[in-house]
Design brief:
about 325 residues; Sulfite Oxidase, Chain A, domain 2; eight-stranded mixed beta sheet; five-stranded mixed beta sheet; 10 helices
Length: about 325
């Protein structure tokens, strides 16, 4: 496994766009004609959620593996995303985010492990040192972002529950509650949302359990209070609002693979050479940019993760 030494050119946490600068930019946009167009349709509820985000459990430290690319503006990260439990439109999650109540919240860890248990979210997070990690996120639809996440390596969490030798995969499940997640009232997917990783993918140091972004607690529309971030895979693998983690011995079902197996494979690694049936993956549009850029294998993290798939036919195991 190759571990990349952070470059001296990588941004410090202080170089990430401060929240005060973001708010100043938003105020300017609101007073301009361009701003009026960009902000059209944003409800009061959306503004309240976007401007929220409480203090974290501890002050995060700079984590490894951060990209040196400029982070996507906070407003774009929190108002343009996929979270079908809150609606199928890109703006729906921020508009409906006020329905989600991230407290009280518990997470069950079970299956092939020596120490299963159910923990309150605050108990769940408190033992871990939080890190700032700036990761690229690539959506299968062809757009991408650069997001300053706050979280802790998933491997430190999984080790705590002592998975047995029978644990070959890790399965994740999202909250199922149509009152809090109104998108679940429609059968657009088979609810609750489920995802999975092979054990070596889950234990890789790049894989992050995120509890915040931009130095604040994770907003509801981005998967509060706890979500997965797997930066070399397409964004739908990074399951949100997690309530259950299960160690299993067989490849677990995943929501999008069940819905359209010819379009969404279990692995879902960013691979520009595997064409989605409805669009090419060779290029992507970074949110905030006009021109498209070339899509990188494994979303630019090939040095770190390509060895996990040595000898595999990545067109077959897409």
């Amino acid at each position: 496994m190759l571990i990349r030494i952070p470059k001296s050119s990588e941004p410090r946490p202080s170089e990430i766009t401060p929240e005060s600068v973001y708010r100043g930019r938003r105020t300017f946009l609101k007073t301009s004609a361009l701003g009026a167009a960009l902000l059209a349709g944003c409800s009061q509820a959306e503004d309240e959620v976007v401007s929220g985000g409480g203090e974290l459990w501890t002050t995060p430290v700079k984590g490894p593996f951060s990209t040196d690319e400029t982070p996507t503006p906070y407003e774009s990260v929190t108002t343009y995303n996929n979270f079908y439990e809150l609606g199928t439109g890109k703006r729906d999650p921020s508009r409906n985010a006020h329905n989600l109540k991230p407290r009280p919240w518990s997470i069950a860890v079970e299956g092939e492990c020596a120490r299963p248990g159910v923990l309150d979210i605050d108990e769940f997070v408190r033992p871990y040192a939080l890190e700032d990690r700036i990761y690229r996120l690539r959506c299968v639809e062809g757009w991408s972002m650069v997001i300053p996440w706050v979280g802790f390596p998933l491997n430190t969490l999984l080790s705590r529950f002592e998975p047995t030798s029978r644990a070959r995969y890790v399965a994740f499940q999202t909250l199922y509650d149509p009152q809090m997640l109104p998108g679940q009232r429609r059968k657009v997917l088979d609810w609750p949302y489920v995802e999975g990783l092979r054990m070596d993918e889950a234990m890789h140091p790049l894989t992050l359990m995120a509890v915040g972004l931009y130095g604040k607690v994770l907003p509801n529309q981005n998967g509060a209070p706890l979500r997965l971030v797997v930066p070399w895979k397409y964004g739908f693998k990074s399951i949100k609002s997690i309530v259950k983690i299960r160690f299993v011995d067989k490849e677990p079902p995943t929501t999008w693979n069940r819905a359209a197996p010819d379009e969404y494979g279990f692995y879902s690694n960013v691979n520009p050479d595997v064409r989605h049936p409805r669009w090419s993956q060779r290029k992507e549009r970074r949110i905030g940019e006009f021109l498209k850029r070339k899509t990188l294998p494994f979303n630019g993290y090939a040095d770190e993760v390509a060895a996990l798939y040595a000898g595999m036919d990545l067109r077959k195991y897409f």
